[in-house]
Amino acid sequence: MAVYLDHAATTPMLGESIAAYTSALGIVGNPSSIHSQGQNAKRLLEEAREAVAASLGCDPIEVVFTSGGTESINLAIKGLYWARNSPGNRRPRILVPLGEHHATVDTVEWLERYEGAILEWLPLDSLGRVSVGAVADAFAAHDDIALVSLLMANNEVGTLQPVEQVVAIASAHGVPVHADAVSSYHRLPIDFAASGLAALSVSAHKIGGPLGIGALVLARSTTVVPLIHGGGQQRDVRSGTQDAPAAIAFGVAAQHPPVSLAPLRDRIIDGVRAAVPDAVLRGDPIDRLDNNAHFTFPGCEGDSLLFLLDVSGVSVSTGSACRAGIPEVSHVLRAMGVSDADARGALRMTLGHSSTEADVDAFLAALPAAYARARRAGFADRDVNE
Ligand SMILES: Cc1ncc(COP(=O)(O)O)c(C=O)c1O
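# pyridoxal-5'-phosphate complex -> structure
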């Protein structure tokens, strides 16, 4: 039986969410319509918004449904940037840590290229944590900061980020902070109201809800310029007929209480260390996501290991992007000071609601042979027969 250890990429839909989704697909009526069928759809949609809001500690009116994490992040970063930049009032600077998800990296780089943004890249330490000192220094040096955007926890190496401290510094200067909580949702407690954040992005398919829906939590006091214009739905922030069935299924997943995956994660970490003593755990060994185990394996290509494990029926990830079939060295590991040679042996195992001890044990059983073969193959740009 196939073993799935790539829940950070996407996790299977929960049975309750599938059931709610399929029955909601029969709903008749646009939630914006005034007739009773429209109002019925609206009621169900708003109940879903309440469920999502309850899971994030925010007010339902602050929940803007989007198509997923990537759209939420684009809306937060571009929307805040545009709202805080007008011809007579320029605040072009964006503070952003190295090692963010590409949804953030590519968005801020787009703003740099087309909208004149100035990017202030904040360094990571060797465990993958953003430097709070660098945030404080940037605020001491500049008074033209539009926003700060950072991960709540790194999606590759699992390290929790000092969001509270960053918000404390930024708030003292009246600058909004956006948190990418896509990989943290249901893995860390999130209390938006208490956080002082201006905006927070989440995605349903990471918590057992459907693909194609997410949310941007936007504090009532925060203004963003919308990406999408149209019928003025959702406070005029995100126009378009709302997807009530997807929202309902999202709401069901949001209410599903997450269980701690730390024991299974530690079983992976201990097992890998026992099987391959040279493998190096990356990210913070303690302050890390409870579903993330990330290692670099010396002397081999993470992709080879991934393919060999796949042949054994175990799905894992290298954690980083693969462009046009060519593996890329992780920008997160680079930012942590890991050499390219070491970073190439990266492998990320992530757990979810359906994970079992048997999954972990099957992975650990397949690992030694896969590693031995991957080492024999060496690096892709060397002669594999050497
Ligand atoms: C940290 C993080 N941010 C953003 C995203 C993008 O979310 P989505 O797949 O919902 O667009 C992901 C997905 O992998 C993620 O892990």
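# post-check
The pocket of pyridoxal-5'-phosphate is lined by residues 68-70, 73, 101, 103, 151, 155, 180, 182-183, 203, 214 (CB under 6 Å).
The longest strand covers residues 145-151.
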